[in-house]
Structures are given as structure tokens and as C-alpha cells.
Amino acid sequence: MECTTTKEGKLFIVDVAGRLDANTAGKFESNCSDWLAQGETDMIVDMSGVDYISSAGLRSILISAKKLRVHDGDIVFCGLQGMVEEVFKMSGFEKMFKVFATREQAVEG
Amino acid sequence: MTRNSLTFKLALLVLAFSTLILGAVLTTTYLFSRSLIIEQAEENSHIRGREVANLLASLIKPIEQSGDNIGLVLEDADISGIKLENLTHHVVSNNPRLFGMAIAFEPFVHSRDKLFFAPYSYRKDGEMAVTQLGSSDYRYFYKDWYQLPRELGHAVWTEPYFDHDGCEALIASYAVPFYRRQGKAHIFAGVIRADISLDWLQELISSIKLYDSGYAAMISRNGTFIYHPVGELMFNETIFSLAEELGDEELWRIGRDMISGRTGFIQRDSVRDHRPSFLLHMPLPLDGWSLAFLFPVDEVLRDTRALTRSSLITGLLGFVIFTLVISASVRRMISPLGKLSKGAMEIADGNLHAELPAPVSKDEIGQLTESFGQMQESLQSYIENLKRTTTEKERIESELRIAHDIQMGILPKTFPPFPDRVEFDIFASLVPAREVGGDLYDFFFIDENQFCFLIGDVSGKGVPAAFLMAVTKTLLKTVATEGFKPGQILEKVNNDLAEDNEACMFVTLFLAILDTRSGELSYASAGHNPPLVISSAKGEFLPSLHEPVAGAMEGMGYSTVKMTLEPNDMVFLYTDGVTEAMNEDEELYSDKKLLNLVNEKQYNSSQELIQTVAGSVATFAGRAEQSDDITMLGVRYTGEQR
Q1: Do B546 and A92 touch (CB under 8 A)?
Q2: Residue B630: in which H helix or E strand, if any?
Q3: Has residue B39 got a pLDDT over 80?
Q4: Nearest one of B283, B289, B254, B257 to B268, comparing CA atoms
Q5: Residue B75 and residue B252: Cα distance in Å, rounded?
Q6: What are the chain B neighbours of A58 within 8 Å (beta carbons)?
Q7: Statement: the pTM of the whole predicted model exceeds 0.95
Q8: Averaged over B303-316, what is the pLDDT?
Q9: Residues from chain A contacting residue B457 (CB–CB below 8 Å)
């Protein structure tokens, strides 16, 4: 899993690519902590590069979201595809987080 | 220094070789110088012998000549006109080595009236004396000195003899026959006898000294000892009679060689004192007489032996010093080895902190010491590491066991659980992964006819997952037995789980309540895989409700869905351990494969279905390690009534 961050004005966009599973969840979590420490409380996570997500991956998202929400921030998703989109649906993550179909929609928010 | 120590062996080796070399050098030197010295001794004795021979010759020659000359003179001279006494007197007094001289005539040759005529001049007590030989007691015609030249017809040296009639001394004589001419014939007329004193000869020979106690001996033509330091041998024994007496064959051979005029050099024990000696014999210019020198071997070799002895002493002294130096230096060199060996033994016995000697030198032993030190460090760190990882592994193993025990301990495992209920049959199985995945299932009656069954999957693994699984199961049962609808149950449980859930662990749940009288099934799902409903051998996934996993976030709402089961319809609940089971090629078992299997045939009990699926999944996975719990729960509604 690789994370690439982009700053567009006030928006902090994270491009995630690869698998988000038990092996990489910790890295995603610590990346989010670092970004939070840099003052980024609101982030758009573009999941279009993610082809697999496990329950550990979901958990790392929950943990990160919880931290951001403590700082009145939030995390939104866009670009879900295939298996990832299905998992988001089935696990009800779509009901817990704002999920946009495209990056543009997410930016417009 | 024990016999097995390296010091001992090394020192022994070096010293053995140096001893060998020392021995070889000394032996060679000794043998070489010995042969050189012996050669020299032979040469020296030859020279002495020749000196004696020359001296003897120079003394004898004039005596022989005077005898021969007189013989010639008498042949033609008018002997009646010559005063023969004057002649012999004159010759003897002019020749200091000549002891006496006689001119002995045949009977009646000098004068027709005299049987004996033999004027004899000789030395007596330093004065000259004259006498006539021959009397009725002394008929000189029959003496050797007269007979031999007469018979042989030439001059001879006699054997030594004591002259009783003339000089009364021990003498040897040169006897020359002389003749008178009568017409053309030579008529034997008598013998001229020239005497030498053997005292004088003995004195000469006895004065010869070779080395400290060497001596000379002289024998005559027939082997008689003329001179020998053992006085009783002289004139009493011949070399042959002595050889016979001693049973000494070698001596006999020597005697034969000597009288044959040969020269020889041999080593043998001396007759005088039986010391091993060198013997040189050579002929003398005296008609078959022979001279022998004997000189002790040890006197000849004394210097060589002294030299060898002092070399040996020096060598041995050097050897001792060498031994000490070698031992000391080898011991010093390899002393770390002893300590090292002791340290290594201690290490071998398990004491990894045994003290090893510090490497003092840069040689092989130093390197070895250093290597040992490194080995010790590596061993220590390896053991340390091993201890740590073993502890860690044990901890993990024990955690896994705890998690496993928690999980398996709280699941109902008795089937059939309600043997008297004919309305349905139920079967469930949970095969935990090595690292427990936190799956759960449960079933219980809420009241007489409301039968609740559920399945769940906790996110995460190990002890935390097992704990959450236990908590969830307890909460579900507590809430469910209060009579809520499935959606409400999940809502309450979600709130309870989400409260203070710092770890953000969550659980997917599917919970259903079956009315055993009507077959009405109400259910709710918290993000769980949609179960299969199998009706008339055809399976169908229940539509996903897309409602959130439990425990993630408080305040989530869950809906309750209702449906009615026909008799023999089956509900098949499972976790993703089934559909995401992987084979060795990392392929997933998949929903599709599950559906196909379910549709393959009519299953007559939930147990049959579950065991078939379990078998299929196990076959598919092959040798791949199971990564997640595989959990299934099946309920078949029979439609029968109690």
C-alpha cells in the first residue's frame, strides 16, 4: 500500500493504492496520525487505487476517523471500486462515512 | 608438562631430531678421524720399522762384507804365510759392531797335523781376546754355523745360539764358506764366522717405543723370538710354538707371513697384556728375520676419543640447554591454549560466560583465541536471542491457546441440541484458524416457539478478538432473550459494543429468529455476509441490507426483515472464512463455488450440508494454511409440529 498526499487549497487529499489488509493497516493508521499531527483534520481519501480491503483495513479507517472526529475533523471517501465498494456497502461503512462516487464530487463536497 | 601435552610432544620431537643429528655428526666425525688416525699410525709404524731396518742394514752390511771379503782373500792366498789370528783380531777391533770372528778350517786343511784349526778373536769385558776353537768336547764341524754354509754352499745367518766354547755369550753368526783352489777345482776349506751380540740387538729393539706402551718384537728365520718384552719367550719359544700353546691360529698365520718376509698391519690383542692393539710386521734385512710392532688401540685413538668425548659432553650440555629453552618457549607460546581449552570445556559444559584468555600474540594461537572469543560472543547472543524468541513464541502460543480456549469454550457444541424439537434441525461447526479469528455462532430459544440463531465475525485476531467474541455472544443472548426484534437486538448490542471501543474493533453479525410453528423468519444483519436460503435444492443469497458492522459507531439503526420458510427450506449462515478460503495458488473459494455446491443436490439435513461444504472447502484449500476461522451454521425448517 502506498499513500500519496496532495494539498489543494484547504483540502488535503490522500491517494491510496494497493491492498489495505492486516499487513498494511498499521501503516495507513500511522500515516493518518502523522497527517493529523501536521494539522490535517479533514481529509479526502481517494480509494480508486485500492483493489482489496480486509476487516483490518476497515478497522484502521475506523481508528483514524475516530481520532479526526475528536479534533472536529472528518474523513470522506471517493473512487470506491469493485470489491472495495462491495465491502463498504456490505459492512455498512457507507452509512458511517461520506462516500462520493468521484474525486470531483468529493472536492466540491 | 604431561606426556600428552603439546609442549612435551613438540619438545620431544625437536630434541629427538637434534639428538639424532648430534649422534650422526659425532659418529661420523669419530669414524672418520679414527680411520685417519689409524692410517697415520700404520704409516708412522712403517716409518719406524724402516728406520730400524735401515739402521740394522747399515750395521750388518759391514759385518757381512768383512766375512765375504776374508772368504775371497783366503781362496787364493798362501794361508800358511798369513797370521790368521792377526787377521781376525784386526777385523774385529776395527768393527765395533762385530762381536767376534773365527776362521774355522776343515780338518787337516790348514796343517796336515791339526784336526782343528779355528783361530777366534772376540770381545771380552771390553778387551780383545784370542782363542782356538775346537777340541774333543767341541767339534765345531758339527755345529750349525759350520754345517749350514758348508751344505748350502753360501753364506748364511745362523739362528741365535749360546756359544759355549768361544765367547760364552748369546750371539748370532754370519757364516761364510770359503774354498781353496786346487788346479781347476774349488775345494771347501772351511767357514768364516762373524758374530754379532744379541744383547746389542735386543737393546736396539727394546729401545723402540711406540705410543705409551707399544713395543717391538723380533723373530728369526724359523720364528724364534730374538726379542720380546716378555723375557721368557726369548730363545725359548718360536712364534709357532707360542701360537700352538695359546691355540691362536691368527698368531700362527702372522708367524708364517713374517718369516715369508711379508709386511702386514692387523688389529689383535697383544700377547703381552691382551690389550687390543695394532700389529705391524715387516721383514728385516737379516736373512728372513722379521720385526713386529704392537701398540694399543686405545693409545692410538686416545686423542680421537678425547675429542669425541668432549664433543659429546658439549653436545649433551647444549642438548640440556636446548631442552630447557625449547620447553620454556613452547610452554610460553602455547600457554594460552591450556587456558583456552579450559575455557572451551566450560563453554561446552554450558557456561557461556567462561573466562577466556586475552589474545596476547598475533600468531595462530592469538587468532584462535580471538576466534574463540568471537564464537563465545556469537553463542551468547544466539542463546540470548533464542531465549527471547522462545519466550516470545511461548507467549504467543499461550495467547493462541487462551484465545482458542475462550472461543471454543463458550460455543454450544452438542448436536442435536434439542432432540425433542422436530420442527427444525440445526447443525453448526467452527474450525478455528491457528491464530483465532474470533468467529462465533449461537442458538437458543427465546420462548417456547421463538428460536434465535446467529453467526458473527469479530475483526482482528487472537486474544482481543476472542474476548470481543465472548462479550458479543453474551450481550446478544442477554438482549435477545428480552424479546426484541432482530434489528433492535443488533442496535442495542452495537451501542453497547461501540461505547468506549477505543480499539475500534467491530463484529459482523447475522441474527435470525424462527417461529417454529409458522416458519416465519425475521432477521437482521450488521455488515455480515448474506446467508443462503435453500429451497427445493436451489440456493439464493439473501439480499444485503448494507447495514453497518456492530461496535464501530454508536447510534446506528438496523432493520428487521421478515420472510417465511417452507418445510424443508434451509438457512445457511457462514463467515468469510468459507468463501475466502485460499488454496495454494492464492485463489479464493468464492460465493459462486459455494452456490454451485449447494445447488448440486438435495441436502436432507443441515448437518449433511455443512459437512459437505466443509469437505469441499478443505479439498479446495489443500495444503494451504487456514488463515481465518471457518464457521457455518445451518437450520432446516421441517414444518413438522410437536
Answers
A1: yes
A2: strand B630-637
A3: yes
A4: B254
A5: 43
A6: 459, 506, 549, 552
A7: no
A8: 86
A9: 55
